[in-house]
Amino acid sequence: AWPALTGVLLLVVPVVLTCWWSGRGPAVPPASDVVACWITAPPGNASLSLARALVRARLAACANVVPAVQSVYEWQGQLQQDEESMLMVKTRRSRAAELSAFVRANHPYEVAEVLCADIPHGNPPYVDWVLQQTAP
């Protein structure tokens, strides 16, 4: 009986937690229209200029610039290691493609890293602010 009960709990508990976190319980309401995008850029002025341009164009409500991350990757058959800045940019989902196109057009790299992920939950006043700031 115990192994069967354990199996049921392993199936039921994640569903219960998902319902609780999805806004049906005392969790923060969903913020399904907000995405966070991660962009790497050369450190210094290049990353700050890109962050300012995204906010000025209202493609981002906010761009956090983490000044020094180490990136390890393979490029054209060679292992590379570079110091870069990491931008975490918050925008609305409907503007993510436009944001990505803007980055590609204004980025010094041949292949710009732009990865966006849904933010299913957030502080409602902050979510509202992101949506207001990035309204087309």
Topology overview:
Blueprint: H1 2-24, E1 34-41, H2 45-56, E2 62-75, E3 78-92, H3 96-106, E4 114-118, H4 124-133
Antiparallel strand pairs: 1-3, 1-4, 2-3
What does this structure look like?
With 136 residues, the protein is α+β, with helices and mostly antiparallel strands. Helix content is 41%, strand content 31%. It has helices at residues 2-24, 45-56, 96-106, 124-133; strands spanning 34-41, 62-75, 78-92, 114-118. A four-stranded antiparallel beta sheet has the order 2-3-1-4. The longest helix has 23 residues, at 2-24.
Overall pLDDT: 84
Radius of gyration: 19 Å
Q: Estimate the strand proportion.
A: 25-35%
| Helical segment count | 4
Q: What would you say about this model in short?
A:
This protein has 136 residues and is of the alpha+beta class.
